[in-house]
Amino acid sequence: MVGYLIRRVIQAVIVIVGVIIICFILFHIYPGGSRAEARAVLGQRATGAAITNFLQVEGLSKPLWQQFFLLIAHAFSGNLGYSFKQGQPVWTIISERLPRTVILVGLSVIFAVLVAIPLGIFQVLRRNKPADYALTGLSFVGYATPTFFLGIVLIQLLAITWHLFPAEAPQQSGLLAILGDWKALVLPVVTLATVTIAGFSRYMRSSMMEALTEDYVRTARAKGAANRRVIFVHALRNALIPIVTLLGLSLPAIVSGAVITENVFNYPGMGLLFVTSASNNDFPLIIATTLVAGVATVIGSLLADILYAVLDPRIRYVSK
Questions:
Q1: How far does Cα 174 stand from its chain's mean position?
Q2: Which of 105, 124, 131 is nearest to 257 (CA)?
Q3: Are residues 293 and 162 in the same domain?
Q4: What's the total number of domains in the chain?
Q5: Which of 50, 237, 262, 284 would be 271's cystine partner, CB 3.0–4.6 Å?
Q6: How confident is the model at residue 313 (pLDDT cuts 50, 70, 90)?
Q7: Domain boundary at 89, 113, 142, which?
Q8: d(C-alpha 18, C-alpha 157), whole Å
Q9: pLDDT for 1-23, tens place per residue?
């Protein structure tokens, strides 16, 4: 187990370096490259001498290999650069926005899991019956509905027409302040969680049906175990393992959905920050937000691997 975790951490570091390489390449293949950043900071009327001085001060006139290793060193030391557009260090801006996105994504994932798992189990108990077919159809509709469209529909119905919830997400900072304005969180969380619920419930249904065909389940039934015990004690734990895998692999999609959701509900998190920085050509912020999203994806995948052993004691990662 320890050997496996060490290998996975090394792989995670390699993936993060790969994300940095991609960000570095995208920055330099952007039309204008470093000069485009200089003009974005100094303005379109900046003189050639001012641009050259800016490139020298920021180290953007150095050879590409030196710039790359400098970016690697800064990234692993926590120095993500300086946003001239906002007049603050990038890490200061991200440290203000990241907790808000963590709250939104975390609540949506918890809500999705709490709804999708019982929903999948219910479909198995009512499989090939009208309720199963109806929920399957609703799952397909939810999975196919664009996040921005669902958010707009919810705002129109629940905020503007019926005045049940605010149309705008919480604008406060701090965990207690955001959670205190819980009514403003309902629509963003439901919007972000709907697609996840649709996918997770389908996987939960398939996984539970497969678990119920295993030998240990037939043995439990032969010994006279009640149907409730067979489902919730013997089958459920093993059926959850694919959901853990799906949760780790779905994290990038959930984070990308948060970008759209935060824009629809004007939620000041990482997603809205990314769109704003892209609109303003704020290159340090664009690179930093992309890197943070990549690191979050790697951490999610690593946590999913660790949870395998927690859910199923038979799974052990042994070095060959």
A1: 20
A2: 105
A3: yes
A4: 2
A5: 262
A6: low
A7: 89
A8: 44
A9: 677 678 878 888 888 888 888 88
